[in-house]
Structure formats: C-alpha cells, structure tokens
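Appendix B, Record 12. Input sequence as logged:
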Amino acid sequence: MRIDNPIIGSSDDWRLELTSATQRLLGDTISLDDRDWRATTALPGWSRAHIATHLAHHGQAVTTMALDIRHTRDAVVWHTQQSQASLNAGARRGAVALQEALDQSSATLMSAFDLLDVMGWSTSIRTSQGLLPAPVLVVDRLNQVVIHHIDLGLDLDFADLEPNLTRTLLQWNLFRAIPRFARVELTVISDEGFTGVIGHGPAATVRGNETNILGWLLGRKDASAVLGAEGLDLADPV
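Logged structural output:
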C-alpha cells in the first residue's frame, strides 16, 4: 500500500481512544514534583517540562483549528509550531503550573471537538502535504499524547500500546515522514502483515514488528531494532 494520504476513519473512531490516552497521561503526571519535571529525557535538550509545555501548546493550537472550522465552515491552515523561546519559557514553570497547563489545554480541546458537527468534521485542513480530512486533528493529537507520554519515561512504553493503535500511529507517522524520504523509496513490511510504501528513489526495505518500526520511524529506537534501517535514521524526534 502506497501511503499517499493518511488512512483515517471518522473522528468518532479515535476520540474515545484520545480521551483514554489523555486520562492515562494526566494520571501519570499528577504525582510529579518540581524536581521530577526537571528530569532530562531522551529528546535532545528537552526535559519533562519541555514535553509538557509542547503538549499544552499543541493542544491549544489544535483547539484553535477546531474552533476555526466551526466558525468558518471552510478549510483552515495547519499550524502547531512553537518557538524555542516560548518552549523554554514554559518549561521553567513549576509542577502545579505545568499540570494545570496540561489539564486545561486537554479539556478545552475535547470541548472544541465536541462542538464540531458532521459538516465540521467533513471540512479539510490545509497542510504542506495538501488538503487532509479534519479527523486528522484527532489522530495527530492522539499521536502527540501517546508518543510524548512514552518520552516522559513514566508508566508507558511502545510495547504497552494496543495493536490497533500501533497500526494507526504507524500509518500516520509514515505519512508524516514522506518529506524526509524524497530521495528514497521506503517500504516497511511488518511481522503483523502490514506493508506501506513512501518516498521516491532507490528502494530500501525495513522489516520488523510494528512496535519497533514505529519506534524507529520516530527516532525513539535505533536501526538495530529493525532490519534494513542502517543509514536510514532520518527521524524527526518531535
């Protein structure tokens, strides 16, 4: 299967999954104190506080897009970027402020999703990879919550993810990776029976279980976790 477009179902398919993932994240972070939030992570230059700040900002950005869809009934532009200065400033907050930012941004986002009707969910999002269906907002947020929860190094790892969730995140992140494979045609073949193809150029094939392929694609696992990935470590760690 060539991944030219994200494989996304209806928003209802993933909103319950997002609710569950968000509750698990907030349940794990509620006990962190100031010192815990300052702990470094595997993401270069990012503490746990940086991850919380990034997640809160992402939630606010997606909320803005969802509300724009509701009010305009027209395609909106994808915008989730955050400046390094803003990220660093947010990461200097204490444990209470960080938890409040996560709680409030998550609750506001879910409320914004609740306000969208069928027409809203049928609207498109303008991205650098073309027009995408509005439900990608839910899948992208789910991806952010799950992957960065793993990055926190608390009570979640790739091996804990349900197979259906792993498959969806793999498909989504393969689509997101297309710009990084402009000179290579990458085929991933999973032990579970999934095949996905992205990119153009000389062929390269990566094999392994879907958990490890996802981790490698995201830069959380090195090339030794899968077969055929040597020299293909092009992952964006965020």
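Residues 70 and 116 are 6 Å apart (CA to CA).
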